[in-house]
From TrEMBL:
Keywords: Membrane, Transmembrane, Transmembrane helix. This is Uncharacterized protein. The lineage of its organism: Bacteria, Bacillati, Actinomycetota, Actinomycetes, Mycobacteriales. It comes from the Bacteria. Residues 114-134 are annotated as: Disordered. The chain crosses the membrane at residues 35-56, 63-81, 87-108. InterPro entries: DUF6326. Pfam families: DUF6326.
Length: 134
C-alpha cells in the first residue's frame, strides 16, 4: 500500500506532471469524478486488506489475499505503460510485484485450518517434563 502511495506522490516531482494535472489530465486520462473514484477505490482496497487480514477468519483471509493480490498484478504492471521514467517506475513496479508474489505465495501455503484451541493453549512437552521432575 505504501509503495503505491509513495510512487504516486514522488511522481509529482517528475517534470510536467503538475502542469498536466492542472490542465485536467493524468497520464492519458481526463480528470473526472469517475477517474478520482476509480483511483480512490484502487488505493482503498490495499488499505482495507490490512484491516481484513487481521480480522477475517483464516479461510476467508487466505481467499481474499489470493484474489486481491492476483488482481493487482495486472493493475501494477499497467502502471509502466507509457512512462518515460522507467528506472523510477520500474523499481516501484518490481518492488510491488515482488510483494504481491509474496502475498500470493504465503496465502497459498497458509494452513487450511486454524490450530485447535487445546494445542494452542497446552504447555509444551519440555515444560511439563521439567515440572514433573521438580
Amino acid at each position: 500500500m505504501f509503495l503505491y502511495a509513495y510512487v504516486d506522490i514522488l511522481n509529482f516531482f517528475t517534470p510536467g506532471v503538475i502542469e498536466d494535472i492542472l490542465d485536467g489530465k493524468v497520464f492519458e486520462f481526463a480528470l473526472s469524478q469517475t477517474f478520482s473514484t476509480t483511483a480512490l477505490t484502487l488505493m482503498a482496497i490495499p488499505i482495507l486488506m490490512v484491516v481484513l487480514s487481521t480480522t477475517l477468519p483464516a479461510r476467508a483471509n487466505r481467499i481474499m489475499n489470493l484474489v486481491v493480490a492476483s488482481l493487482y498484478v495486472p493493475v501494477t504492471a499497467f502502471n509502466a505503460a507509457g512512462e518515460s521514467w522507467l528506472y523510477f517506475y520500474g523499481l516501484g513496479i518490481v518492488l510491488e510485484l515482488i510483494l504481491l508474489a509474496l502475498i500470493v505465495r504465503y496465502a497459498w501455503t497458509w494452513p487450511r485450518t486454524a490450530p485447535s484451541a487445546s494445542t494452542a493453549t497446552s504447555p509444551d512437552r519440555e515444560t511439563v517434563r521439567a515440572q514433573q521432575q521438580a
